[in-house]
Amino acid sequence: MSQQNVQAIRRLYEAFAQGDMDAFERGCSRDILWNEAEGSLYAGGNPYRSFSAVLTGVFAPTLRDFEDFRCNVEKLIDAGDYVIGTGRYRGTHKTTGKSLSAQFCHVMHVDQQGKLESVQEYVDTLQEAEVSGRTERIAEELRIPQPAM
Which domain holds residue 15? Predict the structure, then answer.
């Protein structure tokens, strides 16, 4: 069953890459539980408790904020009922023009029907903050001088 889980997750990454949110939703449990990495750009809605919540709280703002956003999967690791996905998020932030190339890890649980039941994301949140301009805004709010780069 676990190789089937890896294939199910591979299909979800492919659906996302093709912008096929209907196919992505069909691959998810009705009760999906999604957690963005603490401190990440879209963690404010954690935990997301439905596909609709993931779509409006994570996917839509990501595609709004980043031009040519891609989730490049480098490895899928079979862990029984879990699949671990590693890779890089890539894209250009539309406001700052800065490029993103942040490592990610997704720990995903697949239910008995072969559907994605939960996701825990881990990502380089400092890079996300720098690319989006959050570090400059936070420093400005706190009046902390930024080091010259």
Answer: 2-142
What are residue 89's DSSP bridge partners?
Answer: 71, 102
- pLDDT (tens digit, 9 = 90+) per residue, 50-106? 999 999 999 999 999 999 999 999 999 999 999 999 999 999 999 999 999 999 999
Residue 147 located in a structural domain? no
* Residues 6+ away with beta carbon under 8 Å from 40: 121, 123, 125, 128
Residue 130 lies in a domain: yes
> Does 9 have pLDDT greater than 80?
yes
Q: What is the CATH number of the domain that holds 131?
A: 3.10.450.50
Name which of 72, 69, 124 is nearest 91 in CA terms: 69
Complete DSSP assignment for 94-113: TTT--EEEEEEEEEEEE-TT
